[in-house]
């Protein structure tokens, strides 16, 4: 989890939304990795990348590792950057199939567009986390002096012990300390 | 007049609406001098509470000056008097009112058949809080009609400012009752989940009532600062384990008294039960996210007390009732019986034991109300409590 930075109107607050996005990308990584491992042959055939099965399986292992890192790490930021790097590798590998002899060019184009979309999401997530801090900054407002006790806390501590607690609100007799 | 009007999920606008009129002889009309946005208003803003209709006027923390009274008010209120309006509407005559259980008044909810279907029996009418509780217009407006006005008011001395007494309408007696019903002993550790306005009032109430140790749990840094200023030890649940820390602070035995001032929209982080709640809520299989309730039951000392001022709306899942039963916990809850506590609290404010205005962080006009709902909901700009001057 990272905390909102200097320029945020919620400075010092945990940024749960981006953290959720990062963890969500972790689950996505694991899912994609398992798919790449299990269906490498059909994937390469449908993308016109025959012969690259082992590479796709290796990328699957990479995705699973990144996913586990994202889910397990206290600070997801380095792992999201890891995903961005992986996205670049994926795009570069897909780009090798961009030639006239590829009869699955349509599929390949769709796959590249999808990877580009996920890359954009990864970059947004990584950039947001980069601007944030690992430890909370002091909040915008300083309420450390707002005690609520005009005469000070010492004077107020126990000042209401004179309250006659109504019977209906007292601890039941059966739960009061028992003395034989 | 102008008023903050509910139009749908996260859609509140400052509209011009007809002025309220005397509809019943026990009514009075109040010219609102100050009102506030309550944490429980956010349940309506986000539409977690069912029963709102397009055009409903928001608000149940209101005070002002009496400008008109019905014939049946019989001198209990006079024009020009300065009053705080409790959020619960009370008849003062039914069995429950006579016993001081004002929040379950048997007569003030004009939609009691709806409440009876939902809860088994009716509860009191509330200002600006769904048609389940009567569908009464709320007080985030220039004027407010007060039903049963001869009983539904708190007179306040001129020596105290609006900001000192406004919170007698809800959050101060709510935090107070939450602690009083724990029946504090001088040896008690009181753990309070939520450092919002009710949690802040509960911290001060626990200190006033003489608890040995007060602990407040939240993750919003400025709210934790404010709780510490009030004398609490704080736990940031985004940084450390609530259960481990509470056990550490109590010699491994757990706090004797636990207070849930969070309610149905708990923002837990990566706990399995909170992920489960979110998934079920997304599928409309659960109305509330009771993470705090589960945690309290787990960590509370056996034979201890759990007090729940936080608002819950419907059906809660995976409550560890086995732990509750086997540990012999006492559960105290309910909407606040405001008028039961307010005379005593006015005296304590007047004597300088407490000044509730410490919690105010934002002061705006009615036209800025819609924007302040967003700011308050998103906890931006250090927002803890918004006071509106119509």
UniProtKB/TrEMBL annotation, chain A:
Keywords assigned by UniProt, alphabetized: Membrane, Transmembrane, Transmembrane helix
Transmembrane segment boundaries: 21-40
Lineage: superkingdom: Bacteria
Protein name per Swiss-Prot or TrEMBL: Cyclase dehydrase
Organism (species): Methylobacterium oxalidis
Automatic annotation (TrEMBL), chain B:
Domain of life: Bacteria
Alcohol dehydrogenase-like C-terminal domain mapped to chain residues: 197-275
GO MF annotation terms: oxidoreductase activity; zinc ion binding
Residue ranges of every copy of the Alcohol dehydrogenase-like N-terminal domain listed in the record: 25-157
Cofactor field: Zn(2+)
Keyword list, A-Z: Metal-binding, Oxidoreductase, Zinc
Listed InterPro entries: ADH-like_C, ADH-like_N, ADH_Zn_CS, GroES-like_sf, NAD(P)-bd_dom_sf
SUPFAM superfamilies on file: GroES-like, NAD(P)-binding Rossmann-fold domains
Zinc found in the keyword field: yes
PROSITE patterns cross-referenced by the UniProt entry: ADH_ZINC
Keyword Metal-binding: yes
Family matches, as PANTHER family: DEHYDROGENASE, ZINC-CONTAINING, PUTATIVE (AFU_ORTHOLOGUE AFUA_2G02810)-RELATED (PTHR42813:SF2), ZINC-TYPE ALCOHOL DEHYDROGENASE-LIKE (PTHR42813)
Family: Belongs to the zinc-containing alcohol dehydrogenase family.
Name of the protein in question: Glutathione-dependent formaldehyde dehydrogenase
Organism (species): Methylobacterium oxalidis
């Amino acid at each position: 989890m990272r905390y909102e930075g200097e320029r945020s109107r919620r400075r010092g607050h945990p940024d749960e939304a981006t953290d959720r996005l990062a963890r969500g990308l972790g689950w996505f990584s694991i899912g994609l990795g398992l798919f790449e491992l299990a269906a490498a042959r059909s994937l390469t055939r449908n993308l016109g990348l025959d012969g690259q099965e082992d590479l796709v399986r290796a990328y699957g292992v990479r995705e699973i590792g990144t996913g586990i890192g994202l889910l397990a790490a206290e600070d997801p930021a380095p792992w999201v950057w890891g995903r961005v790097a992986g996205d670049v590798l994926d795009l570069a590998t897909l780009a090798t199939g961009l030639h006239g002899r590829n009869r699955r060019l349509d599929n390949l184009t769709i796959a590249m567009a999808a990877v580009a979309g996920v890359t954009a999401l990864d970059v947004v997530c990584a950039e947001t986390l980069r601007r944030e801090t690992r430890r909370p900054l002091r909040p915008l407002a300083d309420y450390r002096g707002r005690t609520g006790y005009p005469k000070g806390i010492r004077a107020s501590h126990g000042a209401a012990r004179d309250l006659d607690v109504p019977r209906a609100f007292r601890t039941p007799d059966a739960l009061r300390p028992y003395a034989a | 007049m102008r008023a903050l009007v509910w139009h749908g999920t996260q859609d509140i606008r400052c509209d011009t609406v007809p002025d309220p009129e005397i509809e019943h002889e026990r009514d009075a009309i109040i010219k609102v001098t100050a009102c506030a946005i309550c944490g429980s208003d956010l349940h309506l803003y986000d539409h977690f509470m069912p029963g709102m209709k397009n055009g409903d006027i928001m608000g149940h923390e209101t005070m002002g000056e009496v400008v008109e009274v019905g014939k049946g008010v019989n001198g209990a209120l006079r024009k020009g008097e300065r009053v705080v309006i409790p959020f619960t509407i009370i008849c003062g005559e039914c069995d429950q009112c006579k016993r001081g259980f004002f929040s379950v008044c048997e007569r003030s909810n004009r939609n009691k058949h709806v409440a009876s279907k939902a809860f088994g029996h009716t509860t009191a009418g509330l200002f600006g809080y769904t048609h389940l509780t009567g569908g009464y217009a709320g007080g985030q407006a220039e004027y407010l009609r007060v039903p049963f006005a001869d009983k539904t008011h708190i007179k306040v001395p001129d020596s105290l400012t609006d900001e000192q007494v406004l919170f007698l309408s809800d959050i101060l007696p709510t935090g107070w009752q939450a602690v009083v019903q724990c029946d504090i002993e001088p040896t008690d550790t009181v753990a309070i989940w939520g450092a919002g306005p009710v949690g802040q009032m509960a911290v001060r109430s626990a200190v006033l009532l003489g608890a040995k140790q007060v602990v407040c749990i939240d993750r919003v840094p400025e709210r934790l600062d404010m709780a510490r200023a009030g004398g609490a030890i704080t736990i940031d649940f985004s940084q450390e384990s609530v259960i481990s820390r509470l056990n550490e602070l109590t010699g491994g035995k757990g706090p004797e008294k636990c207070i849930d001032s969070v309610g149905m929209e708990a923002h837990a982080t990566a706990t399995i039960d909170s992920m489960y709640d979110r998934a079920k809520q997304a599928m409309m299989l659960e109305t509330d996210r009771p993470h705090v309730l589960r945690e309290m039951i787990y960590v509370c000392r056996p034979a201890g007390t759990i007090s729940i001022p936080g608002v819950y709306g419907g059906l809660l899942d995976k409550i560890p009732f086995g732990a509750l039963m086997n540990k012999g916990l006492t559960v105290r809850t309910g909407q606040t019986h405001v008028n039961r506590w307010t005379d005593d609290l006015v005296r304590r404010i007047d004597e300088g034991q407490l000044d509730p205005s410490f919690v105010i962080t934002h002061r705006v006009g009615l036209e800025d109300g819609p924007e302040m709902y967003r700011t308050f909901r998103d906890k931006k700009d250090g927002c803890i409590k918004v006071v509106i001057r119509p």
